[in-house]
Amino acid sequence: MNDKQYFQKQLLNIIEPIKKYYRGGKVFFARHSAWYDDGAAETEAFARPLWGLVPYLAGGGRHDEFVRLYLDGIRDGADKESDTYWGDAGERDQRYVEMASIAYAMLFTPDTLWQPLSDKTKDDLTEWLWQINTHDVCDSNWRFFRVLVNIALKKAGREYSEEKLNEDLTRLDEFYVSDGWYRDGVHGQADYYIAFAFHFYGLIYAAVMDKDNPDRAKLYRDRAETFAKTFIYWFDDDGEALPYGRSLTYRFAQCAFWSACVVADVRPFPIEVMKGIIERNLNKWLGKSIFDYAGILTVGYDYPNLNMAEHYNAHGSPYWGLKAYAFLMLPDDHEFWTCESAPMPKLSEKILIKPADMLISRRNGKTVAYPTGDNEYFDCGQTIPKYLKFAYSAHFGFNVMLSPVNLAECAPDNMLVFDVDGLILFRRHFISASATEENVTIKWSPFKGIDVVTVVTPTSEGHTREHEITSDYDCTAYDAGFAVTDENRCAVCGEGGENVIIPASPNTNLRYRKTVIPAVKYHIPKGVTKIKTVIKDGLDG
Questions:
Q1: Fewer CB within 10 A of the end CB, N or C, for the chain?
Q2: Which domain holds residue 420?
């Protein structure tokens, strides 16, 4: 089996178990609810496997059964008289997200998933897609969904909105910061959406619009090449990638950026290096317990876990991760299929990613990220643990919160929390922050009457935290390190404090079902108190 066949089989193993759940334009299997209506969730479950199937078909793969399911499903989904009609869309509707995968199919598999449609179905589909031009989309990476829809309509010879296309491209440029990094909206965060949304869609645009708009295609390629130089630090040598921010249930979408680079012929590193990143990341994920007993991708991270989900994670949501398989559209004679995967290049031991407000330390092939965490604008589920911890590591994962009623349910790894009258108060209010090549300084507050200035400094064995606490209350504080298992320990110590172990509630850590959290317990009197905690993470072996 050659490399292409290997990855084709890998993709088919992921999507084959879904086949029996297709009903016209929707997909139904055991599910939970998201904040959008069930009809949109069923449409999502139909559309998202296209992120993998389209490049498989575009690269010469054959699967008559899936082609039939999608031709019939598009016919029924776009037909307002059908029982499985995808539904009319409103303002900032979830259906606009799923339109992007339909556009992906029109752009890369027109002979398979567009031309065979009847004239009526083409008209119905055009009408359904057109809704994205008559309503607002979220002012974020969602702008790219409308871009993809309009260029797909254009390439198909259908009516499209040049006005909306230009408006969205202009607006997306306003989210650009520097050094290849965007922000996901004006007040948005710098997280994986920069890689698997902004750059992924930008590179898809570059691949299909090279002749129509060569200047913009070059712009997106140049930005991606620059971005890659720092984004590579989010990947450990063994293939694990940094768990940080929202939408982590998309899992192997972590490497979708590198896949899109190969498709758009962007070479920030030798192709052997990019292939190695993709291959190791995919193989790591597919060796974990991420499928249920029917072979369906679950919501979660290393294992099924609704505790860490966002409000927009429905049953079909995880299949967005199939964007990682964009490289399957490469022709059979492409060098990607014959070159040997290379290990990670030599990287600096410490790097400041200024546009992402993040300092990164790298030791023994493993990354620890120290973000300023200036995000309090987006509340979509577990926002605080996903953005506001002092340190993040693929090796340890991180814990989400169940409640503030006790330490176990708060599960405050890599956080300074306060016990005030039996209530656990954690970092919530961002005041200001700065990141340098030496440390990260954050001014924050958990509650009115308590203000904290924290300085986080990487060391050769982990990091230190120095806190200056101004409190109106006598209270207790816990400065916690990484969550660990019996096989994986780190040390936490501080002068004037008591070493304690917090038994985190089960299923709070993204990677491990059961963890404990080493911490230092401090007495905090009214007034100003200075404490220093030393974290030894054991990443040096």
A1: C
A2: 363-536
